[in-house]
Design brief:
The chain is 19% helix and 37% strand. With 124 residues, it is an alpha+beta fold. Strands 1-7-6 form a three-stranded antiparallel β-sheet, with helices on one face. β4 and β5 form a beta hairpin. The chain is flat. The N and C termini lie close together (11 Å).
Length: 124
């Protein structure tokens, strides 16, 4: 299954604007695999021979401090796409150059296919 989550991030201070930048960078970093290098002979050079999968996400929904059982659970997911729109409702910037708002869209895909037993056992 695939899931998309949308967030509107509106900073109320310079620190919150920096936090939004950090959040976007974190998700963009986790979107891509990490290349691993292997040394080539005695040339002192490395070749990128493969990739390690990016980290999987464990997503859960909470309500009043506890997991919300009214929403189906998700299996571990890989981040499939990150989109962010700068100032979707206006063209102004904060005095430090940071955007006034950012729309962040995250798309995930479960790393394991559901089957009928998953549904019958409940939760998914």
């Amino acid at each position: 299954r695939e899931f998309t989550f949308q967030f509107k991030l509106i900073p109320t201070s310079p620190q919150e604007a920096r936090n939004i930048q950090d959040i976007i960078k974190l998700f963009r970093t986790e979107l891509y695999p990490k290349a691993f290098d292997v040394p080539i002979g005695q040339l002192g050079v490395d070749a990128k021979l493969g990739f390690n999968f990016p980290n999987a996400f464990k997503i859960s929904f909470h309500f009043n401090g506890a997991e919300n059982r009214k929403i189906p659970k998700l299996k571990e997911c890989y981040l499939r796409n990150v989109q962010h729109t700068i100032n979707p409702t206006g063209g102004g910037f904060r005095t430090d150059g940071q955007p006034n708002e950012v729309d962040l869209t995250l798309s995930f895909v479960e790393h394991e296919t559901l089957n009928r037993k998953d549904i019958e056992d409940g939760g998914f």
